[in-house]
Write a structure and sequence with these properties.
434 residues; alpha/beta; five-stranded mixed beta sheet; four-stranded mixed beta sheet; 17 helices; binds alpha-D-glucopyranose
Amino acid sequence: MKRINFLFVFVLAFALILSACSSSGGSDKGTANKGNDKDSNSTSKEVTIVWAHGKDTTGADQKAVEAFEKAHPNIHVKVQEMPNDTGQQHDAYVTAFNAKSSSIDVINMDVIWPAEFAQAGYTLPLDRFIQQDNVDLSQYNQGALSAAQFNGKQWAMPLYVDAGLLFYRKDIVKEPPKTWDELIADAKKYQGKNGTKYGIVFQAKQYEGLVCNAVEYVTGYGGKFIDKDNNVVVNSPETIKGLNKMKEIATSKFVPDNITTFTEPETETAFIEGQAVFARNWPYLWASSNDKEKSKVAGKVGVAPLPSGDNGSASALGGWMMGINKYSKHPKEAWEFVKFMTGPEGEKIQAIAGGRAPVINSLYQDEEVLNANPFFKEKGFQDAIANATSRPVAPNYQEISNIIQIHVSKLLAGQESSEQAVANMEKEMKAAQK
Ligand code: GLC
């Protein structure tokens, strides 16, 4: 009797394990194929993965997806366009992941999210895939790579690096300004030349891009918000000086009246429409403003490091990564796609068609990449990328960012002085650190 029971339990357990394996594999494939199985051979089953990211104005993503699908005929990539504003995009992912949704497989992640997403367990650690496929991480930009590490694991793969740059009209400006004061003088002098309406355009709306711009002014004048040991150090004469310069420019007569509604797309539009002498934006504006089909200033664009304050020139470090939803039903296929996009082939397509700064170091020696982006060769650009200033790295970064956004916006709107703004930020940031 005892023996029969044992045998029965054993057989039952074995059957359960088998059925669990086949049902997870089976339902996985079933949902993936939505009835479009070509045959019963599992290796030729077609899977559609969903890739969520913000709007791409360069067309590079589409090109990269086409190349991927050509190389992987059984994996289709469906793009889900997310809000372009990184804060809104972040909130949409948080809602989906908190609901354990599997509707998205791969997401683009801003450099400021990995710590939070890792702590919340939203994305899959990629170490196992990386090892299994022998991805050589030593070829990657180490700063970009480490921005996706948390608790000793790799939570995403870097896709491209961003650093704030100064774009200018070569047909108007001979030498780009070296300091913010020279920029102010040039913006006043050249506003109106060759059909322009504005001296400079940049991101002054209350959102994440405002934080990046504020970091650049503040760091350029020797200030800081939070130091690397997480101490709140915002209340300093240097931070005040940087913020005052930002306010002087944002409230000048050479920026659009509605500059506090400007994000990257408004900046891009004004510049490619020929309305602005200078624009502060990320590297992609090079590809977009030189695209003859949509830009009125193609061939007339120069690019330079951002002007210096008392402490030199500072660019905010930005950039994006790719992560896999922990609840994805297709982690293997999702990884194939991430590996392609962040590998040499995907990176090259994005650099050429999208002006994105690659995360694989050898691509900065690639002739085709350099022909498409001549400024990648320049020391000013390489220094901007190498020395770019990170925003505070913390799981509660969104809270810190909101505090900066609120008080810098009040400063630009004349509702707080810089002294009040830094004192309020200090108080609120300290409370948020507890
Ligand atoms: C760019 C940067 C990103 C930053 C965002 C702000 O997309 O890559 O890091 O947060 O701009 O708007």
